[in-house]
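hi! just following up on the protien thing from before. the input was this:
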Amino acid sequence: MSYLHTPKQNLFLAALPEKDYERLQSCLELVSLPQGWAVYENGGELDLVYFPTTGIISLLKIIDNEDPVKIAVIGNEGVFGISMLMGRKITPTRAVVQRGGFGYRLKATNLRREFELGSPLRYLLQQYTQSLMAGITKATMPAIRPALRSSIPLAGSPASLA
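and the predicted 3d structure came back as:
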């Protein structure tokens, strides 16, 4: 039994207008995403962007020298590596394949070029980034809530009136 892989199995890529998709398609490379593979280590240089199709990538962050906290999960709806569009060449997280499968990768320079063209890809990336940030906030809140409670003075306390 053979399985046909296509970039449009990634919903982000499938949402692109056809002309923008066609420009990117020739630059996309099908890759295997074996379970447990570290796509990037914390502090690694972001030179490739990944669009999972059947694999799932987890983003992990170490908070206060504790065990890693899973802050995001990226499947066929998304893209990993977009922080390089915000000026970060170094990843602030560890990215590990949670469920093996396949995906497509693209040189970060190609994605940046498309982003700077102001194409619909730019708008989709901005929308996706907002959704991803909201998910990260929701995922990390339980881990950072104790630290927030101890650092924010209660209303009416002497510290809050100073």
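Residues 120-151 form the longest helix (32 residues).
Strands lie at 29-33, 38-40, 48-52, 56-62, 68-74, 94-99, 101-107.
cheers
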